[in-house]
Amino acid sequence: MSDTIQRLDDSAREALVEGDVRSAKAQLKKMQAAAPDDVRTIELEGDLAVEDEQFEKARAAYQRLCDRTDDPEINAQGEHSLGLLDMALDDLEAARDHLAAAVRLYRKTGAAGRLKSALGALGQVACELGDFQFAAGAFRELLTLGPAGDPEDEEEALVHAALDAEACRQLADTLRLLGQLPEAEAMFRDAIARFEEMGDDAGRSISLDGLGVVMQVAGRYDEAEALHRESLAISEAEEDLEALSATYGNLTMLFINRKDWDAAEEWAWKTFKVEKELENEDGMATTHLHLAMIDLERENFDAAEKHLKKARQYYEAHGTPLDMIYVLSNFGELHRRQGKLDLAEQELRLVMQMAEEMGHGDGIAKTNDQLAELRMAQGRLTEARALWELSLSQYEALGSPDIVQAIKANLEKLP
Question: Which of 274, 330, 373, 414 has its CA at a distance of 20 to 30 angstroms from the CA of residue 193?
Fold first, then answer.
């Protein structure tokens, strides 16, 4: 009987991969008739309920696995599936709890393949929640596990190679947010090599883009542009609109960093057009944020405020803590330039609190720079000097030469 159920489950899984839900449901009916309480039957019931967007039905199926207290590995599968379901529903805190429980159980049972998958999802959730140190730890643990499963099974080996490559990329992105740029660069290059070896152009494109962002933070703008344009060429060849839009957004930020407002605006509107076509509200909100940054530098304060309000409206309902940092940071800049110094103070204090909780290295350094500008506007020159000196040391540690020179110039202007 077990062999029959396994064959039916394998057939259903293959059908799902091919998008043939009807065939998968037909296999499930046979499994339900033969072995309704089999773990594979219950798990497939949940997965097909997710396909039909019957989320409570899926939750009930996965909970049945969690309730099988006689088998920790089955419990782990239930927790894992509930975590992935909550990720899909954007309930990130619930997802983190379920995935953390799955990881603890998989460690005990020695299910290395499933442990790697759960760690990858847990790291992603932790990163979205702003817990970058925890996320980095999850990705590092995943990468220490090495190959899992039958080494003779080529398909399984490819799955684990893909997990490792993606963990490299996500660890690199997390290290960038933590301000650990040399290690982030090394991990991105590792990810690029892994994706290239696998022939995964989409993964290589995303990793090239990520490495370009690291180069931007480091002030290596020519290298950044070359990487973004290499990523762009792949996305154009693949006609991948989502990847294309992400690269457009990174090129927008590149030209903002270069203070080329016309080019930045051109890329921003290209991004907005694609995001609108994709009906991606998150991407449109990010573009409003970029347009606000451009309008701020052009001193078009009314236009900047309109864009920031649109971004904040979306992010307050759907964004991550990191999204809110970017919005509030730009509101702080706007209000300082408008002379609304008390309001700017409140916003930048909140940004600093959030950045410190996340360990967001670039965010902390930037906010100290912004607070120094605010102290100058308030006439508190001694405090401005201390904040700029602190920001200078932080940017020197990050390796951001352009910003270092700008802060040194501000310090030289102080009486």
Answer: 274
